[in-house]
Structures are given as C-alpha cells and as structure tokens.
Design goal:
Chain A has 274 residues and is mainly α. Chain A contains 13 helices and two strands. The chains are: A mainly alpha (274), B mainly alpha (548). Chains A and B meet through α9, α10, β1, β2 and α12 of A and α3, α5, α10, α15 and α16 of B. Bound molecules: protoporphyrin IX containing FE.
Chain lengths: 274, 548
Amino acid sequence: MSAGTPRRRRPAAAAALVTVGLVATGALYAAVGSMAAPATAATVVSPDLIKPGEQLYKEGCSSCHGLDLAGVPAESVGKGGARANGPSLLGVGAAAVDFQVSTGRMPVGAYGKQVVRGRSSYNDEEVAALAAYVASFAPGPAIPSEQDLDFKDANLAEGGELFRTNCAQCHNFAGQGGALSNGTYAPAISPKSPRHIWEAMLTGPQSMPVFADTTVNPDEKRAIIKYITAIKSSPNPGGAPLGRVGPVSEGLLMWTIGLGALIACTVWLGAKAR
Amino acid sequence: MTIAQRAAATTTTWIDDRIGAGKWLKKNLRKVFPDHWSFMLGEIALYSFILLLLTGVYLTLFFNPSMKEVVYNGSYAPLNGIKMTQAYDSTLRISFDVRGGLLVRQIHHWAALLFVSSVSVHMLRVFFTGAFRKPRELNWVIGVGLMTLAILEGFAGYSLPDDLLSGTGLRIAQGIVLAIPLVGSYVSTFLFGGEFPGTDFIPRLYSIHILLIPGILLGMLTAHLLLVWYQKHTQFPGPGRTNKNVVGFPLFPVYVAKAGGFFFIVSGVIVLISALFTINPIWMYGPYTPDQVTAGSQPDWYIGWLDGAVRVMPNWEIVLWGHNLSLNILVPALIVPGIMFTLLGLYPWIEARATGDRREHHLLDRPRNAPTRTALGAMGLSFYLLIWISGGNDLIAQAFSWSINAITWTIRVLLIVLPPIVFVITRRACLGLQRKDRDKLLHGRETGIIQRLPSGAYQEVHAPLTDDAKAKILSARESYYEPIEAGPAVDANGVAAPKKGRLARRLSKFYFEQRVTPPTDEEIAEGQHHAADDLATVRPAGQITSGH
Ligand code: HEM
C-alpha cells in the first residue's frame, strides 16, 4: 500500500475521480464517434436544401418521427399503428435518410414484420433535401461521395473474404438473401447501387448490424462493394446457377427433372416389351 | 432361329470351344427376367454408381487431399491471394484449369444425387411390393447396408473440397460426435487427430471416400446382384404367373440390349444435367474457416432429413453430475436415425412375425393387398418427408415470406399428428380398393351401359373380367392373412399354453384385424355368370372387347 491510499478514500476525492473519469470517457467517446462519422458530413448539409427539406419532413415524416425528430412513443400513434412509431432520427445522419427514403422504405407504408424495400415516393432532390434537413439537427454518417464509392482499385479477393466473414451469414454466400428469425429476413443485395450498400453498412438498417468505419474501414467497404458487384455479374461456368442458394435447389432438380425423366424412360422401356 | 438367337449360339459356341463354359453360359444367357418398369429402378442406381466410379477416378488424378495451407494463385480472380488448404486449392484447379474438370466434377456430384435418390426409390418399390419377404430378407438387409453406405459415401465426398459448406457440414458432424454420451469428446479427438478441424481429417476422409466405402459398396453390390440372380427376380401377379415360374424375356438378347441402352440413357441424362446446371459451385462458397458461415448452409438432399431433424428438435439439455447430455443433438442425430434404420433392417422379420408365414414368395404383392404394410410405409415416408422439409426451413421461409419459427412449430406438430393420420387414411384406401376389386370379381366390371328394366328401374350392365384383370385381382388370395389365433388356453393334457406367442398374436391382430376376404371360386363363378347374362341382354355376348 502506498502512502497516498487513505487520502483517495475521501468522498470528495472519489467524486472528483468519477467526474474526471466520466469526462475522459466522454471525450474519448466523442473522439471515436467523430471518427465513425466522417468529416464529410458537413459537405452534404447545404443550407439551401434544409428549407425545402423541412417542409417535406413535416408533411411526410413527422407523424411517425416527431416534429423535433425525437421519435414518437408507441402510445401516441394510436390503435393498429402501435408498431409503426418511428425511432428518433437525431444523429442517424444523411446516409440513413438517403438509404431509407431512396430505397422506398420510408415513409413506411404497410408495416409487416419489417419495413420493406419499394419504389421511392421522392425524387433525388427531395431525398437530398430530407437528408440535409435531418442531418442539420445532429451530425451523423454522411452520404458517400463519388470518391468514397470508387472501388476500381479495391482488392477483390479481400472483399470476398470480408463479405463471407461479415455479411454471408445473413445475406448468403452470393448475396441472395436469407431468412432471419420470426419472419424477418435479410434481403438480396442489389449490385445496382453501390451507394446503398455503403449506406446499409454505415447505418445498419433494422436488424442489420452497423459496420462503422472503425470495424470495416472505407477501403474494406469498397472491397466488399467490388466483390458484390463482381459476383453478381460473374458468369456461371457450371451452367444455370439454380438461384445460388446451395444444395436445396440442386436436390429438387434431381428429384424432379432428373429422376422424373429417368422414371419416364423406365416406363417407356417397360411398355415396349409388350 | 432369329438373328439374336443365332448370335447367342455363335457366342456360346465360341466360348465353349475355348474354355468349355458354353453350357453354363447358354443356360444363363437365356435366363428369363420378368418385366416391369419399377424393376429398372435398381438399374438406375447401378448405372449411376458406375458413372461415379469412372468420374471419381478422373478426379483422383488431380485432387490433393491435404490440409496444408497454400495461397491461391489461379484463374479464379475473386480468390487470388486467399489462404486455403490444398484440398480446396486443387478443387478450384479441377474446376477452372483442368480440361473437362468442371464437367467431370459436376457429373460426379449429380450422379451422386441420382445414385442415392434412385436407391431410395428402389427401396420403396421393394418395400411396397413385399419383395423383401422370404427368401429375400438377406438381400433386403444388404440393401439397407448399401443405403447407409451410399449416404455416408456422399457425405464424405461432399466434405472433401474443404469449401465453406463442407467445413460447416463437418463441424456439425463433429458436434454430433461430441454429443455421444461419455465418449463423445474422445471419439472426436480420435477422428480429427486433435482439435477440429486439425490437419488430419481430410486425408483420412479421402481414404474412406475413395477406398474403404467404395470397396465395401462394390463387394456388397456384387453379393446383392448375385442374390437377385440366384434367387431369381420376383414378378407381379398376372395370367400364368405363379410362385413357381418366372414369366418374362431372356437375358440375351432382350435384357442385354435393354440394359445396355438404359445405361446410355442414364449416363446421357446425367451428363446433360451436368452440362446445363451448376452443382456445388465451391468457388462461390469460399474456403472453409471456422469463423465464417453462410445463410442457407445445407447438406446434399440425402443428409437433409438429418439436418432437418436437428432443426426441429427443441433445445433440450440435461446436466447430469456435471456432464452435459445434449438431447437437442443426441435425439435427432443419433437416436431417431438409429431407430429408423434398425426398424428398416428388421422389417422383414417383424412382418413375418405377424403373418406367421414361412412360405417363399416370388409373386409380388399389389400394395393395396397388404394394407397395413402399405400404411406403415406411407406413415414412415410422411415422417421422413416432414423432417426433410424441415432441413430447408430457412429457404422455405424466404421463398414464401413465412416465419421460420412458425414453420418449425408447424413441423413439430405435424410430426406428431400427421403420420398416424396418413396411416389410417392409407389403410382405409387400400381396404377400399380391395373391396372394389372384390366387387369386380363378384359382379364383373362396369361397362358404363345403363339398362332400363321392364319395371322401369335403371341398372348398369356388368361384363365379365378379362383374364389379365382377373389374375391380378385374384392375387389378393396370395396376400391374404387372418390374425394368428391363440390355441386353447389349456391343451388336451391339461398343460397351460405357453405365453410366448402373445406378442406375435398382438402384432398379427394389428396387421390383419381389418381385412377384406377374397371371394371363393364358386362365388366368383356365379358372379361372372351373372355378368355374362347381363351383357347378353344388351348385345350378343362377346361383342364388347374392351373396357373404357
Ligand atoms: C447401391 C445401391 C443398390 C443397387 C445398385 C441395387 C441394385 C439392384 C438391382 C439392379 C436389382 C434388380 C432389379 C430391381 O429389382 O430393381 C436389385 C434388386 C433388389 N434390391 Fe437392390 N440395389 C441397391 C440398394 C438396395 C436397397 C437400399 C434395398 C433395400 C433396403 C435393396 C433391396 C433389393 C431387393 C430385396 C431386391 C430383389 C428384388 C426382387 O427380386 O424383386 N437394394 N437391386
């Protein structure tokens, strides 16, 4: 025991220590947090967009997410709509809004087990306006820029490795999607919009985890996108891919077409005898 | 002499002149085989097995069963620079760099799927027609052995390339081994040469896959076919077919030509499928590493029922004296399959207990004439199908947007409810069909001609049965049993009857209490006579030549 020990036991010192600890943790957290939310956040929030964004938000989103973006408690949505109460949008960032609105998930139409992709009810400018408005409240992940998404130089094989480690357990080895519990599912990933893949990773919609830049860095994100794009358009050297869902469709094919054709042949050969 | 007969004669003479086996050959080349499409199911299995051997040999020329780690540097760009085992590396090489490699791999795998499915259908036909009865019980048991080995062989092959799916499958297999009470962890350490996955297992599996199991399969298959030859093939009932003869065509030339042609048809279908449809695209799955898994990790179809059984089993575990008893794995992966295969192997004896019949049977049963057996088979099949479906529960959930939990619960309930229902319905249907047969024998077949009687009533005209139909229906007599009756409780000398036969009697009652008695010859003669009279009132007898 050192000589200083008894003094540290004093209540005031303890309180001071806790305060210092909390402040330090908070500072560290903020530092890490701002690392996760890239500085590009500022570039998207253009003041000209905030005004029209506010209008669109009030009309289309506030009923579920609240005028102050703080979300709406379950009770206030009323009967039948209890599950459609929106979460707080403070700090979700422009990326989340862009992903949710331009993939047609928001505003929620019919809420089943999970909010599903659909046709977007807003055009590109309106989406940008909404994103700018939401992002103006609190910083959050930004919409990726052209350079962010430029995966030309990314490492394809590394992307495959990362995809199999981080994504395949839900989205299947070829990004064809898969079932999750209780009727929810991970959808098939479309290679058409690298921006949405990026945003999905960054914001983790619904039961998908967030892959912040601290866990999967931007280079790795580009590699994953490159891999998805590559396999989605890759040829099938073995012939028709049967949905790329593994052995189940192969078994079905053998039992129906394969064995079916051969049993038809046995019947034919058997009939010839008479 | 026809050309074919002459050809046979020339060949046998040629051989006789050299090795003196002509007589034996002449006799056996003219051996008669009965004809029915379902007798060719075993042939499909045989030909796909031959195809498996041929393509398998080609694959061994290039496959390297080593778990040594290498860095891939080949034609499939998305894996370049990735660390993997030589097993996986060489399978990629076969797929992309060896001439014809991918096609041969696909033929090998599609043929494996066909092999096990045709063996299964063959087994079902043997079961539902009662071909396993005396004297063919031994061949049935050999068959069950072949089935087991076919499944194991397939699983071993599936696990060799060391891709993500094979590794995941092996991991589950190891989990099953670990669930064996007391010795599980020792057995696992022994099999894998240490921790999973280690570096020993794939080389070991390789010897098992290319040497051990095919060797045993080949031996048992030879015994199987020799027994078919020696015991002669069964036949379906028909005019002139008895328990003592075989009605059919000679092996040479009819069956040699047919079988030869059929071999090419089976090969053709498999090669066509292999050229058109991808199977097991291991390059998409990536190499196995224990920290990866893909959605929809499924085994090949013939392991699907096991996987499905594990998937429906509630997550029960018991802790006994600090040891975990994993009922969640033990029951579905070891106990249930153990019971299923034991029952399957013993079935000929179970049924023989119920019939008390020691005769030889060379005439097949029509499934309807053995209602309890058919119902038991259908019941077992419904159980199998349910757990099989459960093996694909995630894909079903995805395809139909259902909840995977709801599917699992539905299958749990169905597994308890459905098999008994299937049993009852099937037995009733069989008995119903038998009653219809009986009516036909007694009243002739329905002609569809409606006659108005002088009294003003309408009735349908019945016509006598054709010989073929009559022989078929009459075969119900061969399949007819009554429950074994207990002898008098006390015999003539006042000694109490032994209790021994009680189980057999109970079994027999279960099998044959519900039954349809085939009519006697007198009853039939009378009935058919009526039918003929019936017909004569409409048109001169004999004018109707065929039914509808
Ligand atoms: C490696 C797999 C197998 C092959 C290649 C094979 C092949 C054959 C062939 C070619 C025949 C004669 C034609 C026919 O009746 O279809 C036959 C008959 C037979 N097989 Fe198999 N079989 C296999 C597995 C089985 C299995 C799994 C069982 C039942 C558990 C079985 C039981 C029998 C019986 C009892 C016969 C005699 C049938 C009769 O005379 O009506 N076999 N097998």
